């Protein structure tokens, strides 16, 4: 029996030495140290031994068990450490390799133009004012000298929700609301960027939803020369220092006098080309002196206060600035189009 135990020990130690993974090692543990293992079978024959032999064989059996268990534990530690080292070797990061590129979205050209215009006017002391896109008939029309029945209120031009509510057709209601908040006391110096809506067929130059930026200045002794100087600064900032502007008489219900503003063609320098249709000038916005009726309805004394207002479409500015020929490019999210405009 003693020889049998020593032989089992030798066999087990050899198999532990040859084990290549934790599963094989666990199988050896179960095979030799389990309840149905050969060592247990040997110990069951101890009943045939004399009283003097039993303690000796019991001690030997425990020694064999402990030796095998110690060998298995040591091999288990080795295999676990080896597995960690192999995993680390496979997952080693080569810090000399270039990192994975981080894809950064481009700055949308329309957003870039709006922010550029905002920065310009903020630098000139203007504040940015905002208002609701679902507007009342009063602020969208009546407060701007557009009484009921005026042609500009035609249902074909506006998205009406009820008789008194509609999607705003311009950002001018923000001006009316701001003037009303001032309660007849100047100065007022704001720009109003935002979305506007009109019932229009979408094509290369028209959209049922677009953006506007309108400006308003009200104070004592404001004149047309102040308006012209402001718009000259704007034109040079957006289209180049060589640009000049001209004012042409026009009509808007909320300004008097009213003007259309042209900028000298940045493509031909005013000589005439296909961009300016041979005229040397490109229309960029409308403007004028705030109508006395608008001032009075907002609570301002039109004899004491005067002001100017202007409105532009950032889409048109962006199309001219970047040579974009279709307004729909701004809204279709075509990555090929957007990739052309790199982030600053």
UniProtKB/TrEMBL annotation:
It is an enzyme of class 6 (ligase). NCBIfam families: pheS. Its cofactor is Mg(2+). Residues 111-340 form the Aminoacyl-transfer RNA synthetases class-II family profile domain. This is Phenylalanine--tRNA ligase alpha subunit. Its EC number is 6.1.1.20. GO terms for cellular component: cytoplasm. InterPro entries: aa-tRNA-synth_II, aa-tRNA-synth_II/BPL/LPL, Phe-tRNA-synth_IIc_asu, Phe-tRNA_ligase_II_N, Phe_tRNA_ligase_alpha1_bac, Phenylalanyl-tRNA_Synthase, tRNA-bd_arm. Gene3D superfamilies: Bira Bifunctional Protein, Domain 2. Pfam families: Phe_tRNA-synt_N (PF02912), tRNA-synt_2d (PF01409). Belongs to the class-II aminoacyl-tRNA synthetase family. Phe-tRNA synthetase alpha subunit type 1 subfamily. Mg(2+) binds at residue 256. It is found in: Cytoplasm. It comes from Metabacillus litoralis. The keyword Protein transport does not apply. It catalyses: tRNA(Phe) + L-phenylalanine + ATP = L-phenylalanyl-tRNA(Phe) + AMP + diphosphate + H(+). Its main location: cytoplasm. The keyword GTP-binding does not apply. Keywords: Aminoacyl-tRNA synthetase, ATP-binding, Cytoplasm, Ligase, Magnesium, Metal-binding, Nucleotide-binding, Protein biosynthesis. One of its GO terms (molecular function) is ATP binding.
């Amino acid at each position: 029996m003693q020889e049998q135990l020593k032989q089992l020990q030798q066999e087990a130690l050899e198999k532990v030495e040859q084990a290549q993974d934790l599963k094989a090692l666990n199988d050896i543990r179960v095979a030799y140290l389990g309840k149905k293992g050969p060592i247990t079978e040997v110990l069951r024959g101890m009943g045939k031994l004399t009283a003097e032999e039993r303690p000796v064989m019991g001690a030997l059996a425990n020694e064999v068990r402990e030796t095998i268990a110690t060998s298995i534990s040591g091999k288990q530690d080795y295999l676990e450490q080896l597995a960690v080292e192999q995993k680390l070797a496979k997952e080693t990061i080569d810090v000399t390799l270039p990192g994975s590129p981080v894809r950064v979205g481009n700055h949308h050209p329309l957003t870039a133009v709006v922010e550029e215009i905002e920065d310009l006017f903020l630098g000139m002391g203007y504040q940015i004012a905002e208002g609701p896109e679902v507007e009342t008939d009063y602020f969208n029309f009546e407060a701007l000298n557009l009484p009921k029945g005026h042609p500009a209120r035609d249902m074909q031009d506006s998205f009406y929700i009820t008789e008194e509510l509609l999607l705003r057709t311009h950002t001018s209601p923000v001006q009316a609301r701001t003037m009303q908040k001032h309660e007849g006391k100047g100065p007022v110096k704001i720009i109003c960027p935002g979305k506007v809506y009109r019932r229009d067929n979408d094509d290369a130059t028209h959209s049922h939803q677009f953006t506007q930026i309108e400006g308003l200045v009200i104070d004592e002794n404001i004149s047309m020369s102040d308006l012209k100087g402001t718009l000259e600064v704007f034109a040079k900032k957006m289209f180049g220092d060589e640009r000049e502007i001209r004012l042409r008489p026009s009509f808007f219900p909320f300004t008097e006098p009213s003007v259309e503003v042209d900028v000298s063609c940045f493509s031909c320098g005013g000589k005439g080309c296909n961009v300016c249709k041979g005229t040397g000038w490109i229309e960029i916005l409308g403007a004028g002196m705030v109508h006395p009726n608008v001032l009075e309805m907002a609570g301002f004394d039109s004899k004491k206060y005067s002001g100017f207002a202007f409105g532009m479409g950032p889409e048109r500015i962006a199309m001219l600035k970047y040579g974009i020929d279709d307004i729909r490019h701004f809204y279709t999210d075509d990555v090929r189009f957007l990739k052309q405009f790199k982030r600053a």
